Amino acid sequence: MSTNPTISLDQQLALKRSASRLAEEFSTAFNTETIERFLNSSFDEFADKSTIPNFLPLLAERFARQRLQALARIEGHVTDTNPVVLFLCVHNAGRSQMALGFFTHHAADQAIAWSGGSEPGTEINKVAVAAMAEKGIDISGEFPKPWTDEVVQAADAVITMGCGDACPIFPGKKYEEWALDDPAGQDIASVRPIRDEIEQRVLKLLDELGVPQAARRQPL
């Protein structure tokens, strides 16, 4: 398990359970050593940032799962042709999380979306959560996370929102910068127009990716 010297016994036991679940889920793609390496590095990524230590193993498992899903696509272990979109902003707390919420809702099972940040925050913007709740989309269970090479490489399209030169560039990807105000520090009345513009951009992106409208959920 993780070599982090501050890890508690409860966290070690939780990570072992996480490793078992991931090993079962990715049994046809990766060996135990690869899965544990991704889980441990994911745990270390959040170890110094999380304010709730008991949640660390769960965050690590969720992040490791996303990274392993990305690696599985890169290595050809996934056969579906659904497009993959990565939404990036600075803190992965507001804009990119709202975009992820809208994309996941509207695309249904016809496309995949992930999100990340160049300087991930410690929690999701509560006003962004409230604004999305008004549209019937719950993003309260999401969490800020960094981007990793395998996640970027697995994406067909990378949508950036203000992270500038810190955003990763890999050949062969569709890149698009969305110039949007940052909801950080703003009240909900100011965030609503940002939210609504993000939804319209997401719907346009789905058209560009060829996701058929008949297969999508209706606009909110």
UniProtKB/TrEMBL annotation:
It comes from the Bacteria. Residues 83-208 form the Phosphotyrosine protein phosphatase I domain. Keywords: Arsenical resistance. InterPro entries: Phosphatase-like_N, Ptyr_pPase, Ptyr_pPase_sf. Pfam families: LMWPc (PF01451), Phosphatase-like_N (PF21234). The keyword Secreted does not apply. GO terms for biological process: response to arsenic-containing substance. The keyword Ion transport does not apply. PANTHER family: ARSENATE REDUCTASE. This is Arsenate reductase ArsC.
